[in-house]
């Protein structure tokens, strides 16, 4: 699905899901799951992986692991499908793997990494916004901005990201009214696999 290969796009399956309405189970379109995932993004720590994390509000999926085999779902997941499954009847629904449609690499396919990077980017943009327009570029301004960026990174290191550093801050030589900032961050990586080797 090259037309949808985008780390900011998620395609959920199945196409229907069951929920309770006034005590009666009804079927609703699968896009309700998108709303649930969006609510989880707003509620959970950005670094929280969603794979196997219980979802609330639904009773069963209609058209995921109740219909497709593990191999079939794995084939679709390889193309970027975010499956919502239910391990046993009555159990909470969970995501099979928190995938975006860009499965070309670990950092683009894992939703929790994308959420963390976006959170840090927004935090830094919000912090530097206060300096734009009302200040001249001086050594003191560069020091103040550097301190603010470093403080922002420190505030999320260990919770939203594993770590982050301010690598460079300088006035642009090509555009002297621009401050260039380079930041490196290390995200938390989800524990997708645990490999066990037993020797006898």
Task: Identify the notable features of this structure and list them briefly.
200 residues; alpha+beta; 2 domains; three-stranded antiparallel β-sheet; Ribosomal Protein S8, Chain: A, domain 1
List the helices and strands and how they pair.
Blueprint: E1 11-13, E2 16-21, E3 24-29, H1 31-43, E4 60-62, H2 70-78, E5 81-85, E6 94-95, H3 106-109, H4 111-129, H5 139-156, E7 163-171, E8 179-186
Parallel strand pairs: 1-5
Antiparallel strand pairs: 2-3, 2-4, 5-6, 7-8
Helix pairs in contact: 4-5
Description:
It is a single chain. This protein is an alpha+beta fold. It folds into two domains: 2-109, 2-Layer Sandwich (Ribosomal Protein S8, Chain: A, domain 1); 127-186, no CATH class. It is built from five helices and eight strands; from the N terminus they run E-E-E-H-E-H-E-E-H-H-H-E-E. The chain has a three-stranded mixed beta sheet with strand order 1-5-6, with helices on both faces. A three-stranded antiparallel beta sheet has the order 3-2-4. Strands 7-8 form a two-stranded antiparallel sheet. The longest helix has 19 residues, at 111-129. The protein is elongated. The mean pLDDT is 95.
């Amino acid at each position: 699905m090259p037309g949808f290969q985008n780390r900011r796009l998620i395609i959920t399956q199945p196409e229907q899901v069951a929920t309770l309405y006034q005590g009666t189970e009804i079927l609703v379109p699968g896009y309700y799951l998108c709303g649930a995932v969006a609510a989880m993004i707003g509620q959970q720590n950005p670094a929280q992986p969603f794979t196997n994390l219980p979802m609330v509000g639904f009773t069963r999926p209609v058209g995921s692991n109740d219909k497709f085999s593990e191999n079939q779902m794995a084939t679709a997941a390889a193309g970027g499908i975010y499956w919502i499954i239910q391990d046993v009847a009555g159990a909470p629904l969970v995501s099979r793997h928190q995938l975006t449609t860009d499965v070309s690499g670990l950092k683009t396919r894992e939703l929790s990494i994308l959420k963390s990077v976006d959170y840090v980017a927004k935090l830094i943009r919000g912090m530097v916004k206060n300096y734009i327009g009302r200040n001249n570029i001086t050594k003191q301004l560069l020091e103040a901005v550097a301190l603010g960026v470093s403080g922002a990174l420190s505030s999320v290191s260990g919770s939203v990201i594993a770590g982050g550093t301010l690598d460079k801050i300088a006035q642009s030589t090509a555009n002297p009214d621009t401050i260039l900032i380079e930041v490196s961050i290390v995200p938390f990586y989800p524990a997708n696999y645990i490999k066990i080797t037993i020797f006898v």
